[in-house]
Amino acid sequence: MVNKKELALESTTLWDFPTQNYGDTPHGNNKYNGVTSAFVIWNLLKRYTKDNDLVVDPMCGSGTTIDVAKELKRRVIGYDINVVRPDVIKNDARRIPLNNDSVDFVFIDSPYSDNISYSNDIRCIGKISCEKQEFFDELEKVAKEIHRILKPNKAVGWLIGDQWKKKKFIPTGFLLYQRLEKYFETIDTICVTRRNQTSNTDIWHNRAIQFNFYLRGFKYLFIMSKK
Predict the structure, then answer these.
(1) Which of these, 127, 104, 106, 131, lies nearest to 116 by C-alpha position?
(2) How far apart are CA 109 and CA 125, in angstroms?
(3) pLDDT tens digit string along 130-156?
């Protein structure tokens, strides 16, 4: 059973999530590549939605957003280009089949480069490196769709990380943020730290010193409202 007092306390300390789930109920699949913490979604839905609001996740993955939204009595639609469960609708996030101004909240945990294999679908944005302009052009198409379907003044939460690869740093989060500012007003910007990172080991600490890079144990969470 979820301890409501603990959740209320934790929800005021943005944002450090220890596990995929909260309480005893599974949310999504913690073995899924690029899985999102359910507790991040829980915080956002508690703040920016109410009972029966429509929540949409255009890149739903293993369905974490669906599980959290239903638990909170929100209506929810989850799309993904790679469907792994029956309540996720197969769809490309660059064309969302919903009416203009029809959605109360959007959550999206998008790829931040081609570092993770999400699917075999050639349309997958996660197959494009963030070192290419094309990557941000395609994410901007997603942003435009999110802007179109959101009701006026409603919010989107966009989770994304940076890339350090082959001695080259790409500020993926900042570069995406510049695109998002065209369509949305900023409510807040959060650094979501992650415990139990696989990079938090001696071998990675030694590599970081040897090759002069920082271990990244966080993602950006951009919380923005429709202009």
Answers:
(1) 127
(2) 12
(3) 999 999 999 999 999 999 999 999 999
Q: Do the beta carbons of residue 153 and residue 160 sit within 8 Å?
A: no
Q: Phi/psi zone of residue 75: left (φ > 0), alpha (ψ -120 to 50 degrees), beta? A: beta
First to last CA, the chain: 39
CB atoms under 10 Å from CB of 11, counted, come to: 16
Q: Are 49 and 42 in contact (CB under 8 A)?
A: no
For the domain made up of 4-226, give the CATH fold.
Rossmann fold (3.40.50)
Q: Yes or no: say if 216 and 164 are a contact pair by the CB < 8 Å rule.
A: yes
Beta bridge partners of 130: none
| Domain range summary for the chain, segments of one domain joined by + | 4-226
Distance in angstroms (rounded) separating the CA atoms of residues 114 and 135:
9
pTM of the model: 0.83
94-106 pLDDT, tens digit per residue, is 999 999 999 999 9
